[in-house]
């Protein structure tokens, strides 16, 4: 034990460790908690529990204060087959939560409880980092979608989320106004080839060029199919101001409602 750690334990002999040494900040979002774990572990890919056969689970560290001993213990937690698993890592003794999380991740790696995720041989990703980006890409409920929906709701609009405008067409719109027959898609700048912000990948350039081009062709096909069926299609880039986008959607919905009245 280091001299500094011994000093801390002597200070904690007569009083509890400070809450800042183990408690998470109040009101932290799920994304903020994940970012906190990433920083402490040295990256998202270093939080991997090897499940075998090329499968990994993303782990996190939980810190708990045991009042009877005035000690902070660290536990590794992950999900496997729908059930939460937990493993004791050891005691930590730093004065801040960030330092204790980092200390616990070092202990977990040293004990072999976690590893650094590697790219499977059949993965399309050119590196573990790019695979992490692909895995993190959400199909729905992205931040731009939530911001747009909130703005629409403030304007008094009611809508359906993540449904097919045409049941027989396998295309899901992010926001759908059934009566007005307006379908809104919130497109990511990278995945849909935004002319302002898309930057072609340097690694695997040919593959990613074809991938983005395929997405754009699918978007055009979707637009045409919905328009032929009498729908108005509105596409919003993720970088657009949600309030301005909501205003455009509001005007379109009202216009079509007035026309059909």
Automatic annotation (TrEMBL):
Q: Does the keyword DNA repair apply?
A: yes
Checking CDD domains in the record gives: Vsr
UniProt superkingdom: Bacteria
Can the keyword DNA damage be found in this entry's annotation? yes
Q: Where is this region: Disordered?
A: 1-42
User: What are the alphabetically sorted keywords of the record?
Assistant: DNA damage, DNA repair, Endonuclease, Hydrolase, Nuclease
Q: Where is the composition biased (Basic and acidic residues)?
A: 28-41
Coiled coil ranges: none
The family annotation for this protein states: Belongs to the Vsr family.
Protein's name in the database: Very short patch repair endonuclease
Q: Which organism is it from?
A: Streptomyces hebeiensis
Origin organism lineage: Bacteria, Bacillati, Actinomycetota, Actinomycetes, Kitasatosporales
